[in-house]
Amino acid sequence: MVKKGKGKRKIKTETKILIVALIVLFIINYPFFDNLLKNFLDESQPAFVERVIDGDTIDIGNSTVRLLGINTPERGEIYYSEAKEFLEREISNKNVTLGFSKERYDRYDRILAYVFFGNRNINLELIENGFANYYFPSGKDRYYDEFADAWRNCINNNVNLCEASTNSCASCVELKKLDAKNDKIVLYNGCSFQCDLTDWIIKDEGRKKFVFPRFLLNNGGEVSIVNGSKTDTSSLLYWRNESYILTETGDTIFLRDSFGKLVLWKSY
Is pLDDT of 29 > 70? Predict the structure, then answer.
């Protein structure tokens, strides 16, 4: 006959062994358990992709889906066609799974979703291939760090939207100040020569964009870009017709040369 005390100690020992075994299994198979946990926490739904509208928007029949966590170039911008073609190649006329975050719909009544094809996160792959930047206008969610890392890897790989500018001024035009409270960006020319910034572009994660007019930045000089509608001067340019430029809750600013190549970027 087994005494009650010994029986309880045996159960406790077996429980501890089981817990340790589960921890070891979790560490060994972390990616599997991580994806399993995400899928468990997520409400998801199957969908069939009938049409790709652009690089971050698809048609699933009666509804339009805006891909979460990313922003791809608009029509007429560099890599617009490549982003759309990537989606067409990977998921057009295929069954996918939609995963959701904090908000289910945007202001245009489009479904907001992460699109999965098998175990692949298609939204993430658009960033990895340099066809999108990461974009979280409603605040960071559990995929933010993964998407931000994908962007940094894209920068390291120097591919497509992440390709570094070879302009002679790219290495010495600096972001001297980014003031979200006062909607102000200040660039500094550290070159020993004048820099032609004509048609250079400042863009946020979303759709806000400032295109430089014909503009020369003197060596050692600064230029401030602010929100407003006044007349441009030699050291002050105005980003017109926007309620705000810089999102106080956080965003990313991208500076590109006249060929759309990346000069610098800064998250805040």
Answer: no
Backbone angles phi, psi at 212, to 5 degrees: -65, 135
Strand, coil or helix: what is 217? strand
| 64 and 26 co-located in one domain | no
**Residue 195 half-sphere exposure toward CB, CA atoms < 13 A:** 27
What are 41's two structure tokens?
Answer: 């926490």
Digit-coded pLDDT (tens) for 96-112:
999 999 899 999 999 99
- Ordered strands of the 262-267 beta sheet: 209-211, 201-203, 252-256, 262-267
Work out how many domains the chain is built from and give that number. 3
d(CA 170, CA 261): 10
Residue 84 belongs to domain spanning: 44-161
Question: In the numeric block, which tokens belong to residue 125?
Answer: 């792959």
Same domain, 194 and 214: yes
Q: Do 56 and 36 fall into the same domain?
A: no
Closest of 194, 187, 188, 186 to residue 219, by C-alpha: 194
Residues with Cβ within 8 Å of residue 168, at least 6 apart in sequence: 191, 193, 195
Could you report the per-residue pLDDT of 237-254, keeping only the tens digit for each? 988 767 888 888 889 999
The DSSP result for 37-65, as a single string, is HHHHHS-EEEEE--EEEETTEEE-SS-EE
C-alpha distance from residue 165 to each of 139, 188, 200, 227, 235 (Å):
30, 17, 11, 26, 24
What pLDDT, on the 0 to 100 scale, is given for residue 104?
94
3-state percent helix, strand, coil for the chain, nearest multiple of 5 = 25, 30, 45
Q: Which residues contact 228 (CB under 8 A, 6 or more apart)?
A: 238, 239, 240
Alpha carbons 220 and 231: distance in angstroms, whole number: 23
CB distance 53 to 64 below 8 Å = yes
